[in-house]
Write a structure and sequence with these properties.
Elements lengths: L3 H11 L1 E5 L5 E6 L2 H5 L5 E4 L5 H4 L5 H9 L4 E6 L13 E6 L3 H10 L3 E5 L7 E2 L12 E5 L5 E5 L1
Parallel strand pairs: 1-7, 3-5, 4-8
Antiparallel strand pairs: 1-2, 2-6, 3-6, 4-5, 8-9
């Protein structure tokens, strides 16, 4: 079970929360604004809705949006970053993001109501534990580069 109320409370209070998911892996969810101060290298923006892509990336061609919309497995995308993003989460002009479809995690992200940064945090003590698996730790997770003009490159497939 996912203790969404506790996670939301910790997130609102501290701007980040450390969670231990069902397979034992620990990760953080943090406000994007903390990326500037903490230099979150390789943080992944988690999105609950397709329209949030506009907040993290430069405008996309329809084909790129279709790829995200119809992806059947958990996928991490790499794309040119929106210039308004905090610089700490942008690496070489690129941003990483993932649309989380799993209902429990999607509902949590919806309640947070803003793109959050995800990062695996081995060795950190988790404030919250859940038996639910987090989708990006799935063995079949793919990685794709999506360009604004519809370019697609498979990074990990």
């Amino acid at each position: 079970m996912l203790d969404q109320a506790n996670i939301l409370s910790l997130f609102k209070e501290k701007g980040k929360v450390f969670i231990k998911e069902g397979s034992g892996k620990i990760f953080s969810l943090r406000r994007a604004s903390l990326a500037e101060q903490e230099q979150v290298e390789r943080g992944i923006y988690l999105l609950f809705d397709l329209f949030q892509i506009r907040t993290v990336c430069v405008p996309f061609a329809e084909v790129s949006l279709d790829i995200v919309e119809f992806a059947s497995k958990p996928t991490i995308y790499q794309s040119p970053a929106n210039p308004l993003l905090p610089k700490g989460a942008v690496v070489n002009g690129l941003v990483y993001f993932s649309l989380i479809r799993e209902p429990n995690w999607n509902k949590l992200l919806f309640q947070i109501a803003q793109p959050v940064l995800f990062r695996e945090e081995p060795g950190v003590e988790a404030a919250v534990q859940t038996s639910l698996l987090f989708p990006l730790f799935h063995l079949g997770t793919k990685e794709l580069f999506l360009g604004p003009e519809g370019e697609v490159k498979i990074k990990k497939g």
